[in-house]
Automatic annotation (TrEMBL):
A molecular-function term among this protein's GO annotations: nucleotide binding
Entry annotation: catalytic residues: H441
Sections of the chain in a coiled coil: none
InterPro entries: FAD/NAD-bd_sf, FAD/NAD-binding_dom, FAD/NAD-linked_Rdtase_dimer_sf, Mycothione_reductase, Pyr_nuc-diS_OxRdtase, Pyr_nucl-diS_OxRdtase_dimer, Pyr_OxRdtase_I_AS
Source organism: Actinophytocola xinjiangensis
Residue intervals of the Pyridine nucleotide-disulphide oxidoreductase dimerisation domain: 342-451
Disulfide bonds: C39-C44
Protein name, UniProt field: Mycothione reductase
Binding site for NAD(+): G179, T180, G181, F182, V183, A184, A185, E186, G265
Keyword Nucleotide-binding: yes
One Pfam short name: Pyr_redox_2
């Protein structure tokens, strides 16, 4: 039994907690998989590197309407894949070596294996070499993340998840994606831009159905033009057949494909941890219950990121890691996590970005709101791009002009939303935001200025 001041489970966002201020602490960090976690190895970073490449590959398809004829001659898949992972894999290896061997980490012991609790702040690690290590600690941070779900009916079928699909040996001719959320929207864009025929299966009738209904409807309409979208037909099973995979569908038919990508959501890794032994409670979806300081229900145990957060977003995990870091270092002056205005973006084509309440949520909550919507087609740079489908929609309190939500679908949505997140975070009202600063003309952010001015506020226009 080895005792530590601090044990951290998971090297994704959990790894960022340690800095020089922990130099005097005896720390253990436990990792069962690839050092660096999901975002670095199989999540945000590689997907966006593929998305950027896909944006380039899909340019010829939209250039013709501007009078420029481009041609996509080839996608050198193996080269794209190796460029991306040739950059990522050394970072994961370097991060592991740094923690294991660098003199900055003389106080840190890396345990490579799967941790589970055996009692309050007591853990057993099943190490990769088959042995076990028993640890106790004054404090434990659970940063164990989440994993992709594969429904029972597809578990035995030949399939990929986001963990594996980015490392294919070669591009398939046809790909069927089960799911209509973030992962489906991003990979459909990536692989179809590279020339793969994409079919998407869903059960909710729409893509990105958690977005504001206007955004989801527009994305679904555009998805239908680009992919074989069957938003109300999903898979009941699948099996290998000569020359491919046969997928049986809920409407009684079947389709043939070359690759099946399952993208139906993620579950927290809390079930691997024997949390009852530690007195750590989980909610009905298996997320670790935390208070606003990220403390769990067990004394001396904190949690952060996907294992406890329903947002399942890296910027949320990073924020929570900073909160936990502070609260470990300054237990008498704890800070709280700020989950008021958590944004997200879907890096598909078109991009989608959102912060705050959707119109449906505002209505359900009974808050008074007005909306302002403006099309890219209504601003000068939108003309330059000949965009006919994108728009920004903002929601505000009509009495104060304070923003309640913002939703954008179209080019650079993930970038365009940032000033709106800033306005909401710092309490800047829509009128002051629109009229209290210059907006570079003719630039894409004029879309935001115009959406803000379209809000029918109770306040007089002066
Ligand atoms: C395809 C994809 C694309 C994404 N794109 C984005 C994006 O663009 N933007 C964004 O904000 N978010 C994105 N996300 C979500 C983002 O990756 C996650 O929210 C984030 O990585 C969660 O970080 P974490 O530290 O909570 O968990 P993780 O990074 O998953 O780290 C947890 C670590 O704990 C280890 N572990 C688990 N259980 C144990 C155990 N019992 N013992 C030892 N080790 C254990 C795991 O092996 C893992 O390495 C994406 C996710 C996916 C799947
Ligand atoms: N850009 C980003 O920030 C980004 C990108 C990728 C992933 N992520 C994170 O990863 C998480 C997982 O993404 P995801 O796309 O797997 O999940 P998701 O929750 O976004 O979408 C899954 C979808 O699959 C549908 N579904 C569930 N079971 C199904 C079935 N049997 N058949 C057909 N459809 C089914 C659900 O209705 C849902 O719409 C997300 O919650 C997100 O936070 C973020």
């Amino acid at each position: 039994m080895t005792h530590f001041d601090l044990v951290i489970i998971g090297t994704g966002s959990g790894n960022s907690i340690l800095d020089k201020r922990f130099a005097g602490w005896r720390v253990a960090i436990v990792e069962k998989g690839t050092f660096g976690g999901v975002c670095l190895n199989v999540g945000c970073i590689p997907t966006k590197m593929f998305v950027h490449t896909a944006d380039l590959a899909s340019t010829p398809a939209s250039a013709g309407k501007l009078g420029v004829d481009l041609e996509l001659r080839d996608v050198r898949w193996a080269e794209v894949r190796d460029r991306i992972f040739g950059r990522i894999d050394p970072i994961a290896r370097g991060g592991r070596e740094y923690r294991r061997t660098h003199r900055d980490n003389e106080n840190v012991t890396v345990f490579e294996g799967t941790a589970r609790f055996t009692g309050p702040r007591a853990l057993r690690v099943d190490l990769a070499d088959g042995s076990t290590a028993d640890l106790t600690a004054d404090r434990v941070v659970i940063a164990a993340g989440s994993r992709a779900v594969v429904p029972d009916e597809l578990a035995d079928a030949p399939h990929h998840t986001s963990d594996t699909v980015m490392r294919l040996d070669e591009l398939p001719r046809r790909m069927t994606i089960v799911g209509t959320g973030f992962v489906a929207a991003e990979f459909a864009h990536v692989f179809s831009s590279f020339g793969v025929d994409v079919t998407i299966l869903g059960r909710s009738g729409a893509m990105l159905r958690h977005e504001d209904a206007d955004i989801s409807a527009r994305f679904t309409e555009l998805a239908r033009e680009r992919w074989d979208l069957r938003a109300s037909t999903t898979a009941t099973g699948a099996r290998a057949v000569d020359g491919g995979i046969r997928v049986d569908l809920t409407d009684g038919t079947s389709l043939e494909t070359d690759l099946l990508l399952v993208a139906v959501g993620r579950v927290p890794n809390s079930d691997l941890l024997d949390l009852p032994a530690a007195g750590v409670e989980v909610d009905p979806t298996g997320h670790v219950v935390v208070d606003d300081t990220q403390a769990t229900t067990a004394r001396g145990v904190w949690a952060l990121g996907d294992v406890s957060s329903h947002y399942e977003l890296k910027h949320v995990a990073n924020h929570e890691a900073r909160v936990v870091q502070h609260n470990l270092l300054h237990p008498d002056e704890p800070v709280t996590a700020d989950h008021r205005f958590v944004p997200h973006a879907v890096f598909s084509s078109p991009q989608v970005a959102s912060v705050g309440l959707t119109e449906e949520q505002a209505r359900a909550a009974g808050v008074r709101y007005v909306t302002g919507t403006r099309d890219y087609a209504g601003i000068a740079y939108g003309w330059a791009m000949e965009d006919t489908t994108g728009f920004a929609k903002v929601l505000a309190d009509p009495a104060t002009g304070l923003l309640l939500g913002a939703h954008i679908i179209g080019p650079q949505a993930a970038t365009l939303i940032q000033p709106l997140i800033q306005a909401m975070s710092f309490g800047l009202d829509a009128r002051s935001m629109a009229r209290g600063q210059y907006w570079i003309h003719p630039s894409v952010p004029e879309l935001i200025e115009n959406a803000l001015l379209a809000l029918p506020l109770d306040l007089p226009l002066d």
